[in-house]
Predict the structure.
Amino acid sequence: MTELELWCSSSCTEVDVDTALERPRAGHDGPPLCRARALSAAGWVWLNLKVGAFSFGTGSVAPIYRRALVVEARALSAEQFQDTLTLAQLLPGPNLVSLTMALGARLFGHATGVAGVVALCVPGAIWVLLTAWLVPMDSPVARELVAGFAVGAAVLLLDLSVQLEQGLRASHVVGKQASRRKRGCRQGVVLVVALLSVLGVPLLGIVAIGLLGAGLAELAP
Amino acid sequence: MAFQIFWLCFRTSLISFAGVYGAMPEYARLFAVERSWITPEQLVQDFAVAQAMPGPNMVLAVMVGYRAAGLGGAAAAFAGTYTPPLLLMSGAVAVLDRYRSVPWVRRVEVAVRPVVVGLMLGAAVTVLRGQVAASGALTTAIVVGAVAVVYKRFSFNPLLVLLGAGALFLAIGEAIAHRSGGSAGTPGVVGGPHPPPLSRHRPE
């Protein structure tokens, strides 16, 4: 459950660290701290294959990308990386896949972008299919074990959403906090969206109502 | 049917704001309630398995597709789920440099947060509700409490927490089964009615 890091990194804290890292390069005078190691298109696809096979969640993957692209290959500035990350989170769809596509397409072209996404997604799909095929999911033992898994995952998810709720304090001005009333409005939107989702309202309706409510909440003083 | 799975996954992926958490209740509605291609219990199972897998956890769609229509369904779900971000982002990248660092981007990002948190909350409640229906409130409540305490108090690795929760659930189920003198497969202890045999597709 590392989406929290991702959430935080999108607000402000980690930007400063990265800007600091980038400073030698941005100044144009003086040698960079370490030599840039060029990343080829094939290297990008290979990186994604490794990430797809061994990493969990967007939050744990974003730092890997940042290290590879910003620190090691110096293919993107920290700011450019941050913008791409924000964009991937902003647009609907699976965030990690969006991020991978955006970075790949931006650096190596669309074909490599698609290849990177396929490399990222195939290992997990193979794992899942093997599980579905090999594990007798209807057996009592497997059912109870997986039921426990599901409950555990739900609790971690509850914890994550409680933590992310802290992000509702943020104002659109970096470093400033939103007013109490605005935060209350945002919490109202959270509850309405959650309720609609539990009641089985179609996702399109939830998203439409949620975005409308979120927009109205921002009007609060 | 494969095309239908592709389309359902495509449109869900296109509008899912909190990734798999926004998509999960939608899958429940589309695949379990409206079409009964899978049972709600299977969906919760698949959700748990997908959470424990490496890579993007939208892989849940692949498992749902496989259960609904075998390997063809899995391929259709894979394509349907991952095509929208490809299209969206390749379009966005083209205009990204022109609009990057525009102040309203941050503004929109902050504004969208309540929707994302709400969808996550909704997914968590959906899973718990399904589990209460399948395994009874008592077992679920005990495991919820144990996980919450262990995770918050000792900050274990999430994957270990999941495994522990699975083991605990199994142990409680076995204990209840022994006390009531039934086997571990007694309905009401392990879960509701077993899914029909056909529901678990093996590739022919």
User: Anything to note?
Assistant: Residues 85 and 170 of chain B are 38 Å apart (CA to CA).
